[in-house]
Amino acid sequence: MKVLKEYTLLLIILLIHIITFSFCPSVESCNAVDEEALLEFKRILSPYIGNLTYLKVLGIYNDEGDNDAGDEGLSGSIPPELGNLSNLTYLNLYDNSLEGPLPSSLGNLHKLQHLILRNNYLSGVIPCNIFRSFKSLLTLDLQYNRFIGPLPSSIANLVSLTDLDLTGNYFSGEIPVGIGKLKNLTRLNLLYNQFNGSIPKSIFQLPRVEFVDLSYNNLNAPLPEFVVTGTGIKGRLPEWLSSCLGIKDLDLSSNQISGTLPSWIGNFSSLRFDVSRNLLSGSIPPHNASIPASAFSHNPGLCAPPLPPYAEVVWCQEEPMNMGAYSYIAPRLCTAMKSVNRGTADDIKYVGRLPSAATATGFISVHSKEQTELVQKALQPEPIPFP
Questions:
Q1: Structural domain includes residue 307
Q2: Where is each Disease resistance R13L4/SHOC-2-like LRR domain found (predicted)?
């Protein structure tokens, strides 16, 4: 009897696969009634699917972007009977037109490892107990639906979770502290929601987290809570971020973060870092060379990276001292140097031709010789005398 059930199940799975991806209404062996019944299987998730208790993988989705061609895929709601599939490990209903709430019966899928429901019209509040038995879940992808309300605290039970993506919903309330207990989490996307309040710093101390995006929410609490792009947060960078060495992407741009940049940003060897468009001041500490200058731009009080203690500030030009850009740039260099405690105008070493009424010597050989000497002098390891 068990063998017969397994063969029957295999036949049903193959039938669903054929209907979903290669159904042809011109097949002569299909009469009108059978054809309509098979098409109905493609349009909605029938409650009878709950009878397929041996099913381990269920994927009905438009991976090729068929929705753009007018094929909206599955419609209607997710039947509560889907929670009867106790052997299910993979459920992917991506890019359909499903609507309505998430059935609490899905919490019965104890073996589920991947739950992918993105790009639908699902709505309502997430049932508070739905995550209590998802001990094996690795992927939870609910992005671009219409879910509302707070995230249930039972999310802390997703102890195996590696990827959490809730982008593009209407979730509100504070981010659950329980997310900071998901020790296997590597990616967290909560952008484009309505979360507010503080952000649990434990999120950024998770041992495996590599990417976090909380942008475009209403996270308006002052630091030391952590913030990301465009949240409008004020305050200084919290010291506890220095222990989050596993982070690979840290985007703090377009906020109102003030104060100086801490020296510990140089401890992140593979960090993609952005603090542009803030209110930072002071000098930029030594950091990973792969971080571009644009990552520090649009901070009115922020200066260039600090110079080594005994480095000289040298201005080199081929024109005579009374020509070229030296007379214009010198006072501006002096202002910049004072702001970072690097001396005064007397500490700017000029390397160029002495004041002269002529722009050049008139002899190409002499001109070339002077050019070579200027470059050598500007780059010499010994201190350069003034002028």
A1: no
A2: 78-271
